[in-house]
Write a structure and sequence with these properties.
- The protein is mainly β.
- Helix content is 9%, strand content 42%.
- The strands form two sheets. A five-stranded antiparallel beta sheet has the order 3-5-1-9-8, with no helix packed on it. Strands 4-2-6-7 form a four-stranded antiparallel beta sheet.
- The chain contains three helices and nine strands.
- It has helices at residues 147-155, 169-173, 178-183, and strands at residues 23-35, 45-53, 58-60, 67-70, 82-94, 102-110, 116-125, 131-142, 186-201.
- The longest helix has 9 residues, at 147-155.
Length: 211
C-alpha cells in the first residue's frame, strides 16, 4: 500500500537570549493634548485611560502589572484643546520582537453632575525607530444599534456607559476578537497627540535597524 507521509513536527521555540543580550526598548514622553471630540459642553472634562499593550515575549521592566494609567481631568481651552501633558514611561525587555508594543487609549468625560462616560477609543503603534516622534492617535466611538439608543448616547441620558464595548478593550483594539469587531459600527471621534523619545539597546544583535 501507499506509505503515509509523516507529520512534520512543529519547530522548537526560539532559545532565550544570553543574559545581557535581550532587546531593550524604552519610550519616554507625554500624552500631550486632545482635540476635535464632538458633543462635549464647556462643563465636560476629559481624561485618558491608557495601557501599553505588547506580545507575550515582552516583559515590562519594574511593572508586574504592565504599563497602565490615567491622566488628570482637563477642560477645553479657548481653542477647544484639552491639554494633558501627562508623562509616560514604558520600558520593555524581549527575546522576540513579534507583536511590537501599541498604545491603547480610552477617552472618558466627566460631566458637571459627576457622571463618567466613555467618549472614544484609539490605538496607535509605538515607534519602531530610535529618536523623537510625534504621534497622532485618531479615535472612534461605537455607535448604538438604534436611533433611540444613539440619541441617548449623544445626550448623556442616564444608564449604562454608551461607549461600552461588547468584548475586552484589548481584544477589540488589537482586532483579536475579529467576530465582535466586524459587527461593530463606529464613528470617527477626536485625536490625541503623543510625544515620545525612543531608545533601543542591543538592536543590532536582533537585526533591528536603528534608523
Amino acid at each position: 500500500g501507499e506509505s503515509m507521509a509523516q507529520p512534520v513536527p512543529p519547530a522548537p521555540p526560539a532559545p532565550p537570549c544570553a543574559p545581557g543580550d535581550e532587546f531593550e526598548l524604552h519610550f519616554i514622553g507625554e500624552l500631550e493634548f486632545g482635540w476635535d471630540f464632538p458633543g462635549l459642553s464647556l462643563d465636560d472634562g476629559l481624561f485618558v485611560d491608557y495601557a501599553a499593550d505588547a506580545g507575550a515575549d515582552w516583559l515590562p521592566i519594574a511593572r508586574k502589572e504592565g504599563f497602565v494609567g490615567q491622566t488628570q481631568t482637563c477642560y477645553a481651552d479657548a481653542q477647544g484643546v484639552y491639554v494633558f501633558n501627562h508623562p509616560i514611561d514604558f520600558h520593555f525587555i524581549a527575546d522576540s520582537v513579534a507583536n511590537w508594543p501599541k498604545l491603547h487609549l480610552q477617552i472618558l468625560k466627566l460631566d458637571a453632575c459627576g457622571r463618567i462616560e466613555t467618549v472614544a477609543y484609539g490605538c496607535v503603534a509605538l515607534p519602531n525607530v530610535c529618536g523623537h516622534s510625534e504621534l497622532t492617535c485618531r479615535s472612534w466611538r461605537p455607535l448604538a444599534r438604534g436611533v433611540l439608543e444613539e440619541a441617548r448616547a449623544v445626550n448623556g441620558v442616564l444608564g449604562t456607559d454608551p461607549g461600552a464595548l461588547p468584548a475586552a478593550r484589548a481584544d477589540v483594539l488589537n482586532a483579536t476578537s475579529t467576530e465582535v469587531r466586524s459587527k461593530m459600527v463606529t464613528k470617527t471621534s477626536g485625536s490625541i497627540r503623543i510625544s515620545l523619545d525612543t531608545i533601543f539597546r542591543n538592536a543590532g544583535k536582533h537585526q533591528i535597524l536603528t534608523r
